[in-house]
Amino acid sequence: MSFDSTSSKKVNFDRANNFMRQFRDPDSRELKKLSANQFMEVWSHYDRDGNGYIEGTELDGFLKEFVSSANFIDVSPDAVSDSMLVELKACFMEAYDDNQDGKIDIRELAQLLPMEENFLLLFRFDNPLESSVEFMKIWREYDTDGSGYIEADELKNFLRDLLKEAKKINDVSEDKLIEYTDTMLQVFDSNKDGRLQLSEMAKLLPVKENFLCRQVFKGATKLTKDDIERVFSLYDRDNNGSIENEELRGFLKDLLELVKKDYDAQDLLEFEETILQGVEYSSDGKISRKQLTMILLALAKHNQEEEPSTP
């Protein structure tokens, strides 16, 4: 790719300020393999507002520096013209914006930057969880002290098991595990309290789809018996005719995500009490088809009432 030197009149960067140059081999201009800490340096540098995405002007800055740092001649990132940037962004987003939301999250950046093999595995969950029921089972397994949070030592155990499963070997040193754990906390611990709450862990362990986000629950179309049966089957994983324990927590987690972005175990507990009070809930800790139907109809009705007020 050649650069138009006339387009670089307003040079805002010098060599030291092209952050990506330091991660390229000076002879081949290929990207070097990044350690977990280096990857986090890159991420933090470009996600300037710390919202978990590289987007807008952050994305423009990253792409300009990423491309210009590959040039053998030391050129300013501003050498990337506006028209080149538009074309570059279109190609880049097509290749790396997996969920097509117009911005890059940390997993998507991990597909682009070469990293140490083990660390990269942590980001490549090729098979997202089928449902939040599986998520809640994993949560219960690793929240060993029942505190309602995944603390650093619990997260380390989770990452160790994840790497073992992915690699089928036990070759990750304790030092590396600590480094990976620290990095994962930097990435996913949004409120920086040194542990992962439910909503933060949900970003690390994504579910394939929150079924309750589908249009049918937004009041646009009428809920059918089949729709309700599908939802019931999704959460009644053991097919015993009721939703209970992790199945119930998974369902409530999906419901809670519709109204709240950041939530913890206490929020889930309070939400459970609120929701179940309205469905003649008995103390057996189970939800029947009838009770699920009432909740879903209430959800669709609520969303339909909200619809006109949205711009």
From TrEMBL:
GO CC term (a single one): cytosol
PROSITE patterns from the UniProt entry: EF_HAND_1, EF_HAND_2
InterPro entries, A to Z: Calbindin_Ca-bind (IPR051001), EF-hand-dom_pair (IPR011992), EF_Hand_1_Ca_BS (IPR018247), EF_hand_dom (IPR002048), EFh_CBN (IPR035799)
One GO BP: regulation of presynaptic cytosolic calcium ion concentration
GO terms, molecular function: calcium ion binding
UniProt entry tagged with the keyword Acetylation: no
Pfam families recorded: EF-hand_1, EF-hand_7
Boundaries of every EF-hand domain copy: 34-69, 83-119, 130-165, 176-211, 223-258
Keyword field: Calcium, Metal-binding, Repeat
Protein family according to the UniProt entry: Belongs to the calbindin family.
PANTHER family reported for this sequence: CALBINDIN, CALBINDIN-32
Protein's UniProt name: Calbindin-32 isoform X2
